[in-house]
Amino acid sequence: MEKKIKSLQLEVEKKIKDLKSISDLNQLKSEYLGRKSVFNNFMKELKDVAKEDKPKIGQMINEAKQSIAKLFDIAKGTIEVKIVEKKLKSETVDVTLPGKSFNQGSKHLISQVIEEVEDIFIGLGYTVKEGPEVESDEYNFEMLNLPKNHPARDMQDSLYISEDRLLRTHTSPVQVRSLLENSKHEPMKIICPGKVYRKDDDDQTHSHQFVQIEALVVDEKASLADLKGTLLFLARKLFGEQREIRLRPSYFPFTEPSVEVDVSCYKCNGVGCSMCKGTGWIEILGAGMVNNNVLESAGYDSNKFQGFALGMGVERIAILKYGIDDIRAFYTNDLRFNKQF
Ligand code: DAH
User: Fold this and answer.
1) CATH code, domain carrying 119
2) Which of 62, 199, 285, 292 is in the most buried spot, having the most CB atoms within 10 Å?
3) What is the pTM of this model?
């Protein structure tokens, strides 16, 4: 019996050394130390052992069991350490590898120019207003002193939705809306950026949709001199502090007098170059004193109130500032174009 115990102990010690997983270990443990295990059977066989040998053999069996149990514990610890090591190795992050690149968006040039103009006007105390892109014929034309059959309506080929609704052809209807809203006739300084639509075929210089910014000032003393000062300030902020402006008489039904505003060429400083077609001046926007008819139809007493307005094309400003040669570039979403700004 002693021999049997010894050899079994050696056998199990060898097996423990080869263990690779916790489940194999648990199985082996129950095989050798469990209730129906070989070592437990020894205990049963003990009853056949001679009386005087019983204590010795019994002790031997217990010692063997204890030593094996200890070996199992050690083996368990070793296997667990190995598992953790393996896991750490497989999950190692190589911090020297290049990271995943992702595209960061940026503001479209048109949005940038809108914000630039907004900032200039906000600095002068204006507030930003918006109006709907689907507008009534009344606000888009009639109340801006453009009655039905007025010849000036031919200037704007319009996209009508119904007989009296259209996609606004300019941001000027926001003038009407703002005047009507201001029922107490408090002094008002607003700008309105927004999309406008014309029935144009798209080409290098035309787009059926583009962006305008309208400005309107109405109070009891707004003058042409104020308009001129505002225009000079705007031109210098947009095109450089050395710029001068020139006002040319023009015609818009909603302003009287009306002017076309030129800025001195920022490329040749007014000497004359290909940019300004040799004239030294570049046209940037339209403006004027608000027509009395516009004030009156919005319920203002034109003997008491006066105002000035201006309207500019954002694409035109961006084209001039950044030397872009095709208006369609703003709308075709070519990232090579968009990323330049
Ligand atoms: N609404 C005009 C257009 O679309 C631009 C314009 C000119 C607006 C003169 C104004 C203005 O407010 O005073 O061509």
Assistant:
1) 3.30.930.10
2) 285
3) 0.73
